[in-house]
Backbone:
């Protein structure tokens, strides 16, 4: 629940018993600011790196990120900077929170400054098209030898900053990284659950954006509750089918990073991907919608990357195929929706087997 006075940051528990560690967060957008603010509230000296010097100076002076999350005061331990060396030098934990389009470029830039034992965490929910590369794989490729993790879950930046009670998932092979992230980020309004299936958690966060677009579109077209429930459930089936083919554990999709984030983004117009879908459903042009949004909606790029992968690997993804046909091949939404309804009737829960064969 939100604090009565959303500017009052005092209610987040300060972890007096925990030794402060230097934390860097790269990306001064909505989510980077939210993550950095939690860490700083918990008493960790936290450096929020943003690429534009003038904006970093303004944020540092005004103690808020007025462009992305106006009205919320920075915790005392939060420093905004455009100096990469200042941000990541000596940091023992580094979060990368830039959109997937700039992820590799930013990681390449920090290489000379990062401590050899720094723990690296991606919070980005996208996929690099070339080679179908996940953000954690970019970290592995560019910075071999570091422990790597993925933070993902039903987490609107705005609600985190408002101190709405929130749960997230940290996924990694490294128990040290998991414990460090739990220590640095957990508070009485932010719970951090552990998962060892990094690939599943990361794929869940990226894939759900596609289905949020579909859900927004369905809302604009007047879909009822039955339709929404079917869409969300079949989206879960489709995303876990692809992820399972790619080596993830389908059980991960029953957790916060899977069904949790899918429900969140498919049912709320706080989701930018949902809003893109809604506007498409109203008949507006994609370029205009994206330009007006002014923030990243990863689902549009992820749709193209996933549609190509599904075709290459022959994975049955009718919703992805249908949305791709609407957005990139100009097919009328009604025609695609009709085809989906009269198409092959698949198993309800396919990991159980059909049970009738
Ligand atoms: N906003 C949320 O609620 C939320 C929650 C969880 C995860 N995410 C994910 O976090 C990532 C970032 O999202 P956001 O909401 O913070 O985006 P945003 O649009 O609010 O901000 C993006 C920030 O990244 C910066 N940026 C973009 N390209 C860059 C580059 N090449 N180099 C350096 N900086 C660059 C922009 O200047 C901006 O400060 C996305 O993958 C998103 O899916 C967002
Ligand atoms: O606004 P969206 O659609 O990018 O969603 C933000 C987060 O991923 C929600 O968990």
Residues:
């Amino acid at each position: 629940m939100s604090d009565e006075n959303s500017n009052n940051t005092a209610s987040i528990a300060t972890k007096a018993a925990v030794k402060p560690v230097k934390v860097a967060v790269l990306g001064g957008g909505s989510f980077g600011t939210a993550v950095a603010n939690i860490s700083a509230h918990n008493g960790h000296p936290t450096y929020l790196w943003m690429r534009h010097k003038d904006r970093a100076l303004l944020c540092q002076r005004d103690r808020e990120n007025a462009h992305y999350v106006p009205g919320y005061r920075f915790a005392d331990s939060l420093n905004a900077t455009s100096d990469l060396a200042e941000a990541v030098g000596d940091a023992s934990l580094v979060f990368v929170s830039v959109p997937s389009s700039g992820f590799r470029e930013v990681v390449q830039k920090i290489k000379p400054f990062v401590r050899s034992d720094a723990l690296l965490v991606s919070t980005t929910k996208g996929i690099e098209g070339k080679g179908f590369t996940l953000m954690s794989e970019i970290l592995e490729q560019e910075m071999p030898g570091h422990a790597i993790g993925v933070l993902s879950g039903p987490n609107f930046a705005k609600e985190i900053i408002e101190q709405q009670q929130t749960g997230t998932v940290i996924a990694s092979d490294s128990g040290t990284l998991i414990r460090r992230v739990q220590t640095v980020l957990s508070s009485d309004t932010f719970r951090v659950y552990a998962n060892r299936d990094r690939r599943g958690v990361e794929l869940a966060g990226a894939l759900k954006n596609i289905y949020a677009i579909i859900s927004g579109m369905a809302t604009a077209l007047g879909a009822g509750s039955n339709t929404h429930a079917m869409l969300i459930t079949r989206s879960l089936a489709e995303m876990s089918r692809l992820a399972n083919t790619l080596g993830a554990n389908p059980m991960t999709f029953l957790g916060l990073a899977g069904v949790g984030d899918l429900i969140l983004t498919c049912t709320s117009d706080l989701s930018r991907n949902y809003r893109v879908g809604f506007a498409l459903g109203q008949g507006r042009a994609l370029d205009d919608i994206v330009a007006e949004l002014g923030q990243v909606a990863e689902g549009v790029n992820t749709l193209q990357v996933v549609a190509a992968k599904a075709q290459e690997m022959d994975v049955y993804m009718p919703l992805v195929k249908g949305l791709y046909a609407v957005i990139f091949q100009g097919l009328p939404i009604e025609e695609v929706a009709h085809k989906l309804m009269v198409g092959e009737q698949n198993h309800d829960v396919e990991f159980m087997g059909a049970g009738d064969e």
Notes: The pocket of SN-glycerol-3-phosphate (ligand 2) is lined by residues 125, 154-156, 209, 212, 261, 264-265, 271-273 (CB under 6 Å). Confidence is low (pLDDT under 50) at residues 1-16. The CA atoms of residues 185 and 338 lie 46 Å apart. The first strand starts at residue 23 and ends at 26.
